[in-house]
Amino acid sequence: MAIRRYKVTPTVTAGAYSANDVVGARLTFGGLRSGVLQSITITDNAAQAVDYVLVLFESEPTDIADNATFDMADADLDKIIYQDSLASASTRQAFTDNSYHFLYGLTADLWSVGGTVYGFLITTGTPTYAATSDITVTLQVRDFDTVQAFRI
Prior knowledge:
The chain is built from two helices and eleven strands, in the order E-E-E-E-E-E-H-E-E-E-E-E-H. With 152 residues, it is mainly β. The longest helix is centred in the last third of the chain and has 7 residues, at 144-150.
């Protein structure tokens, strides 16, 4: 079974964010052409207890800078292929000095126009990160070719 993990560690601000800010600017999941999204994991080395929203696009949306308000261009609305919320109260596991958010058991179809899925991670809280590499976003995807093999 062809299951792949696509990881992005964006450069984030080592400092404070406001609610509805983009975390790490535009995310690029290179090589992700199509498949079934199975899970989303966000690792946080700074252990911030905040909610996130992840929005995925089939083609490259207009960039929004890290730590800027998420104000998507109108022309990018029809490029959205997936969106989900990761609430701190229900999707977060805290450890001593780090944490992660997780959504498992997803079955959303993903596709891209040119072989890359793009995204934005938005915080609805006010995190303060310690280092520019504190966040990693991982998508676990089962290839459509594998899915089709099981559909008869």
